[in-house]
Amino acid sequence: MKYSVVIPVYNEEHNVTQLYKELKPVLLKLGSHEIIFVDDGSTDKTLEELKKLYERDSSVVIVEHQRNYGQTAAFYSGFQQARGEIVISMDGDLQNDPRDIPQLLKKLEEGYDAVAGWRYNRKDPWCYIIVSKIASVVRKWLTNDFTHDPGCSLRVYKSEAAKSLFVYGEMHRFITTLLIVEGYKIAELKVNHRPRKADKSKYKITKVFNGFVDLLNYKFWLKYSKRPLHFFFKYGLVMASLGAALLAYNLVKYGLGMELGPTLVIAFLLLTAALQFVGLGVLAELQIRSYYHSHPEQLAKIKKIYRKNAEHN
User: Fold this and answer.
1) Beta bridge pairs of residue 191
2) In whole angstroms, what is the distance from residue 249 CA to residue 256 CA?
3) Quick one: pLDDT at residue 204?
4) Mapping DSSP to helix (H, G, I), strand (E, B) and coil, where does residue 191 land?
5) Residue of 81, 132, 89 whose CA lies nearest to 108
6) Would you say 139 and 150 are in contact if contact means Cβ atoms under 8 Å apart?
7) What is 3-223's CATH number, 1.20.120.450, 3.40.50.1820, 3.90.550.10, 3.40.50.720?
């Protein structure tokens, strides 16, 4: 299997068939492939339309979620099921253009681990674009991600890069950031972006901010997951130093009797907080040991997988 295309869909009954019709000719020119549709708990006739495609084309794979878990979980499920040497991701709303895939693959051959699309002329409501640009500025400030459009789902990856992603929450918007943090070599190319013609957009501005919380959590995890005591001890040491300084000040000013006042109270509070921080660090170390001896749970419960065993061409 050379190529696996992962497409999360949620209530896209009027788009999935047309997307398949546009995508299939592109893939036939490329070589052996599979098209993995991840139905993320659709409540319309999306699954019925996908089953029609599955019945007539052995390259179509359907991953059916038990309920709606979100696009991030859908990408994760699709990446884990992908069997191709190269994984291609895209949206199921027809806004990504399948004809851009060959140029992304050509760029990948230059030695990159992943190539991201850049919706240079984005066809979305102006409010979405403004929020995305603000989010992009903050993201670049927080991370070393140079890409212009991390929210674009049209990307190509080497299989090992795609399968290395452990994403949750709203982190699909920061996949390029996560890959860069993990040391993968990333490039980007301008791609076509088309206006939505059917069904409703699932984009919510609030999810962008939720994604930032997930990104900050990930950065913390990446830096301190194997040594949480370092984080707690570092800030505990700062508080202990401040507390000790205030205690010394009280001793110098009032002698061994030390006057009970705000300075002394704050000093003892800081020293107590420092001890608590160090204690939390020790407990976190114990939790981490348990974590690394267990297997990560699936981010979404898969109800059923539709896959035929035939070779796909």
Assistant:
1) 119
2) 11
3) 58
4) strand
5) 89
6) yes
7) 3.90.550.10
Alpha-carbon span 243 to 227, nearest angstrom: 25
Residues 6+ apart with CB under 8 A from 275: 236
> How far is CA 205 from its chain centroid?
16
| Rounded Cα distance, 36 and 47, in Å | 13
Residue 137, Cβ density class (10 Å: 0-12 exposed, 13-18 middle, ≥19 buried): exposed
Neighbours of 49 (CB within 10 A): 21
Q: Which two tokens stand for residue 144?
A: 């070393």
The DSSP annotation for 108-132 comes to HTTT-SEEEEEETT--S-HHHHHHH
Band the pLDDT of 174: cuts 50, 70, 90.
confident
| Those residues with Cβ within 8 angstroms of residue 1's Cβ, 6 or more apart along the chain or in another chain | 32, 33, 34, 83, 84, 85, 312
Joined tokens for residue 158: 């080497």
From residue 186, alpha-carbon distances to 116, 161, 224 in Å are 7, 10, 24
Distances (CA, A) of 38 to 6, 65, 192: 7, 7, 23
Cα distances (Å, whole numbers) of residue 220 to 176, 215, 232, 295: 17, 9, 12, 20
Residue 189 three-state SS: strand
Quick: pLDDT tens for 202-251: 555 555 566 666 666 666 666 666 666 677 777 788 888 888 888 888 88
The pTM of this model reads 0.71
The SS3 assignment for 201 reads coil
- For the chain, what are the domain ranges? 3-223, 226-291
Determine the Cα–Cα distance for residues 247 and 184; give it in Å rounded to an integer.
Answer: 49
* CB-count burial class (<10 Å; 0-12, 13-18, 19+) for 61: buried
Task: Name residue, tokens 């995305």.
Answer: 132
